[in-house]
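Quick one from the shared queue. A colleague (R.T.) flagged PROP1-like PPR domain-containing protein as missing a structural entry in our internal table.

Convert sequence to structure tokens.
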Amino acid sequence: MSLREKKKARREAPERVLKFKLDTCSKCRDVVEGLRLYDEARKNGVELNQHHYNVLLYLCSQNGARLASAMEDPEMAFILVKQMKSFGILPKLRS
């Protein structure tokens, strides 16, 4: 595999695509789309890393009231932290 093909494979990896999409949601403060992407990634078996979870937690914290009313689930951030731990990703203090 050439260097160009390796770079393309890394760029198109599901984890990388998810990172880009979640970062876009964070910039637009689109918590509903961020959570939809999270659910889709979990269904498709995409391996989530600490950055993915940090973006989701940031979205939840910045849009807490709207999230609670839209999802009728104010405990979403706590659930994400528990899932991080279950996957062996230790939440940092900032998380």
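The chain is about 75% helix and 0% strand.
Helices lie at 3-11, 14-28, 31-43, 50-62, 64-71, 76-86.
Added to the table.
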